[in-house]
């Protein structure tokens, strides 16, 4: 409150007051529910006879309080509407992303396939696929796109299509992954990459050919022996990091009663309610 702005020492350097010839003014802040100021209300007069008093400031403060509540509520309402729209979009994106996943595992005599995928949020960067190859083999794909949310989900759609194309058009899995990496190294935004595990099963022999692009090592569990990580020496870089990188493959025999486990970091980074890693 300034009853006489022309003689108020607080405004000695304010050229705008003297230019507009403001004689008296009062100003109160607009404050949201968190106590943060988001604006002001100012009333001034150029009449030297109508000076504002403390009673006028009290009235303006009351008005500003009501205005703050109304504006804050309007902003919260607008925010809620935006969040609801985003929520709807995420739910649709989740349905679309789940549409990329296989409807059911392969039905091969003598083999059983199990799969499970639950994103940490509505959408995520993990995906898997089963790809029947022309020679009777079946490729099992597990991949993890760095990051979460819509950006990672959109990239999984691209990866899913390209890995299928390269595996169907290239006889050797390592060569197919090398070609896939060359494509992604050109297209991915800097800082983005993909880890990928390809396991190609020959049903008639039980041989599994594995190509690992920066992914967690698969675990081979034999029915009568210990579990072992597979393919340490042949594991390569994640996809999209280095163009021209040559990937290698290794082969293992899946014994009768054995289990080959392929997973993403959602397993080894899982936490309990106290935010502690399991194991």
Automatic annotation (TrEMBL):
GO molecular function: phosphatase activity
Gene3D superfamilies in the record: 3.30.450.40, PPM-type phosphatase domain
Stretches assigned to the PPM-type phosphatase domain: 110-279
InterPro entries attached to this UniProt entry: Bact_Sigma-Reg (IPR052016), GAF (IPR003018), GAF-like_dom_sf (IPR029016), PPM-type-like_dom_sf (IPR036457), PPM-type_phosphatase-like_dom (IPR001932)
Keywords, sorted A to Z: Hydrolase
Protein name per its UniProtKB record: PPM-type phosphatase domain-containing protein
